[in-house]
Amino acid sequence: MTTPRHALADANRLMEQLSGEQRADTWFGHCEQKHHVHLSHALTALGDTRRARESQDHALALSAPTSTMTRTLLTIDAAACTHPGTAIPNKPAAAPPPP
């Protein structure tokens, strides 16, 4: 059975195997900045705040100042790191019953 930490290690290994074209900073590429945005969220959800913050810092350093969506997602993860276990629920809340 694969654990979340094994899955992250696999993702890092796969990232290193991508070709230059596959790592391009395009809609279809998986560049280092995108990789760290996704790692930040996964590590935040796992409660590994130290590594999550490292990925957040790395992604921010690679992000253009105009990348507002990316910067917002990283800010949300950083806030969740400040209050671990409270900002990212393990499962979605149930929808309220209809009136």
Strand content: under 5%
Q: Topology as H/E string? A: HHHH
Q: Radius of gyration, Cα only, in angstroms?
A: 15 Å
Low-confidence stretches: none
Distance between the termini: 43 Å
Give the averaged pLDDT, no decimals. 84
Structural class: mainly alpha
Quick one: biggest sheet? none
Number of strands: 0
The helix count comes to: 4
How does the overall form come out from the CA principal axes?
globular
What is the percent of helical residues?
A: 55-70%
Quickly describe the structure:
With 99 residues, this protein is mainly alpha-helical.
Features:
single chain; 99 residues; mainly alpha; 4 helices; 59% helix; globular
Descriptive report:
59% of the residues lie in helices and 0% in strands. The radius of gyration is 15 Å and the shape is globular. It has 99 residues and is an all-alpha fold. It starts with a helix and ends in a 17-residue tail after the last helix. The mean pLDDT is 84. It has a domain at 28-84.
